Amino acid sequence: MQKAKRLLAIESIITEVNIPTQEELLKRLKGKGISCTQATLSRNLRQLGVSRIPDGTGNYKYALSENVRNPAGSPLGN
Asked: Which of 46, 53, 58, 77 is 20 to 30 A (C-alpha) from 10?
């Protein structure tokens, strides 16, 4: 259950806020009461199909690729 909660939190955070680094994402997850290692976060990002894209200000941010969701709208792995 922790993984599903973490995946949903990752999706929520990166769709609501520009997140430039995994470190920042880890801090946001911790703020939601979810702790994990950088290695786990990296695997989760890969599983969700998250990539880094230009944010329009010369920096990069994490973004979801919509085609990695299943028809029910849940993240993969549930």
From this structure: 58
Q: 0.85 exceeded by the pTM? A: no
CATH of 2-66 given 3.40.50.970, 3.30.450.40, 1.10.10.10, 3.40.30.10: 1.10.10.10
Angular region, 77: left φ>0, alpha ψ -120 to 50, beta rest: left
Q: How many CB atoms lie within 10 A of CB 46?
A: 10
